[in-house]
Structure to design on (555 residues):
């Protein structure tokens, strides 16, 4: 029949009528007890299920078991939650809802002054959300002129979106709506509300957290585990941004457009230096502390932070000695492998724990010790480079590595001698009221820029490795973050405006047929929200210099 078109799904050729949507096409592949299919990819290009099937499409299914699928599910859930608030409390209440940051596998949200978050709120909104999901309501998408969108969001009182679209280059934007409520979202949605099957709202602090299933178990809601230290540092960072009147990308762009970026950089860097000085003072005031243990996820700025902390420790008469735990990697041929047969450099077994403890104990006991250096080219530990250490009364070890908060790394070392620091780049900006910037996006962009500059790694290679890096963090870093004595947020409120000019060229260099193109395209769209600024005003000791170069620590 002339009206039939052919597509391929996972190697299987399937026929369907012209005009069929992807959602209709993949309906038979949906499973009630498994991961939910929320989109498809056609030759590395993401497609919404509401789109019409293309002739000759070569499809792979995007489910909630993938990072991309998780984002689509969360985004759609936020729209349903906002529609529920709109129905129960009215338009004025919706503009006060802020989707802020991740906490315990969920998103933390707050409300405006005209809405109280309590048990009654949770019960009413949960019930309304389930009602909306059960009704199988369509999630409509329409393209409007930017001027029309700005007018709409002005009526809603969504000032963050108004500011954001002032700097929008394209003439049109896409709005998503359920019935009479519409909003803007950074990324795709599911076609209707029935796809949202599993969620839970929980009261927490002054707001609420909405929970969804994780990638590993796509239908079970994870246990909510409060993380008070992490929550506090994120809250403080957000409040600081609000004091500067910069809590969204649009507000940051306003500062840049008004020529105030140099001042903002100085203030942000001064704040970080003040916090580092405060940490150094805590360490110096406790004479029992002989080892500073610094841990954090990839691209959190651990190395620069350890140098800056060392400088501050010197102002108290201490003599710091940096010790990278990476120098205690086992030889490459002895590295453990993961379930896929790949070398696993993220696990604790990749470290010679016994040698590390033996050397550190000798140093604490006053012995002179020759420390190893790991050669990343040959994949072997090396000696004979004159790297001897011996601790005097005022000497202190500054040890940096992803496992430094895990007591299994330092199991032989006295706990009273250790001061533990957790560092991460916890983005304090949001795109707007309802579109948050994932912390992982900021770190991924940092890593792409740094590795392209220092290691010759392409952006595609960095993206390809990111899943295994993130999996290692979930296993080896995040479970121990609340054990830290202090936490430090290394994110700089202006950094994505600087990183943009370095990241965009290498992302554009990814081939359209490469598997990493979908993610590259998403990141390019994300960076498009920012007005770019140069790096000339960034101090040479800034954490950002670790990634863009030009720093004073020769990293």
């Amino acid at each position: 029949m002339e009206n039939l078109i052919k597509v391929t799904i996972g190697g299987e050729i399937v026929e369907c009528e012209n005009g069929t949507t992807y959602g209709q096409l993949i309906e038979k592949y949906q499973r009630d007890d498994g991961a939910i299919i929320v989109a498809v990819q056609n030759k590395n290009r993401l497609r919404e299920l509401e789109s019409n099937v293309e002739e000759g499409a070569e499809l792979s299914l995007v489910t909630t078991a993938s990072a991309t699928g998780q984002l689509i599910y969360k985004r759609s859930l936020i729209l349903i939650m906002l529609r529920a608030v709109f129905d129960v409390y009215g338009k004025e209440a919706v503009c006060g809802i802020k989707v802020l940051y991740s906490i315990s596998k969920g998103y933390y949200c707050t409300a405006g002054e005209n809405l109280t978050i309590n048990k009654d709120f949770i019960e009413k909104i949960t019930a309304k959300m389930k009602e909306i999901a059960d009704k199988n309501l369509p999630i409509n998408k329409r393209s409007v002129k930017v001027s029309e969108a700005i007018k709409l969001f002005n009526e809603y009182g969504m000032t963050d979106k108004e500011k954001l679209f002032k700097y929008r280059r394209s003439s049109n934007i896409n709005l998503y709506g359920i019935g009479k409520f519409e909003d803007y979202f950074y990324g795709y949605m599911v076609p209707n509300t029935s796809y949202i099957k599993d969620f839970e709202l929980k009261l927490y602090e002054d707001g609420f957290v909405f929970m969804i299933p994780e990638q590993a178990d796509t239908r079970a809601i994870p246990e909510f585990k409060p993380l008070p230290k992490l929550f506090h540092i994120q809250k403080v960072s957000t409040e600081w941004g609000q004091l500067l009147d910069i809590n969204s990308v649009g507000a940051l762009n306003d500062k840049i457009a008004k020529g105030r970026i140099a001042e903002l950089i100085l203030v942000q860097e001064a704040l970080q230096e003040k916090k580092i000085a405060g940490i150094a003072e805590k360490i110096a005031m406790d004479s029992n502390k002989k080892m500073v243990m610094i841990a954090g996820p990839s691209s959190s700025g651990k190395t620069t932070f350890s140098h800056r902390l060392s400088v501050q420790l010197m102002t108290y008469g201490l003599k710091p000695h940096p010790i990278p735990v990476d120098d205690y990697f086992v030889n490459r041929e002895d590295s453990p492998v993961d379930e896929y047969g790949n070398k696993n450099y993220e696990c604790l077994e990749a470290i010679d724990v016994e040698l590390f403890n033996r050397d550190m104990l000798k140093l604490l006991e006053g012995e002179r010790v020759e420390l190893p250096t790991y050669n990343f080219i040959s994949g072997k530990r090396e000696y004979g480079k004159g790297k001897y250490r011996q601790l005097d009364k005022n000497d202190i070890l500054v040890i940096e590595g992803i496992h430094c908060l895990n007591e299994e790394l330092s199991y032989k070392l006295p706990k009273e001698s250790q001061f533990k620091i957790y560092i991460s780049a916890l983005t304090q900006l949001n795109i707007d009221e309802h579109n948050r910037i994932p912390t992982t996006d900021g770190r991924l962009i940092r890593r792409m820029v740094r590795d392209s500059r220092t290691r010759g790694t392409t952006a595609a290679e960095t993206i390809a490795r990111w899943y295994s890096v993130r999996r290692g963090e979930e296993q080896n870093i995040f479970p121990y973050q609340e054990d830290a004595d202090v936490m430090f947020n290394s994110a700089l409120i202006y950094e994505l405006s600087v990183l943009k000019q370095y990241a965009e060229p290498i992302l554009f260099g990814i081939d359209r047929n490469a598997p990493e193109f979908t993610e590259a395209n998403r990141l390019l769209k994300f960076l498009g929200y920012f007005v770019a600024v140069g790096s000339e005003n960034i101090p040479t000791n800034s954490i950002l210099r670790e990634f863009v170069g030009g720093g004073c620590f020769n990293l």
Notes: The first strand starts at residue 4 and ends at 9. The mean pLDDT is 92. The CA atoms of residues 318 and 393 lie 9 Å apart. The chain is about 35% helix and 20% strand.
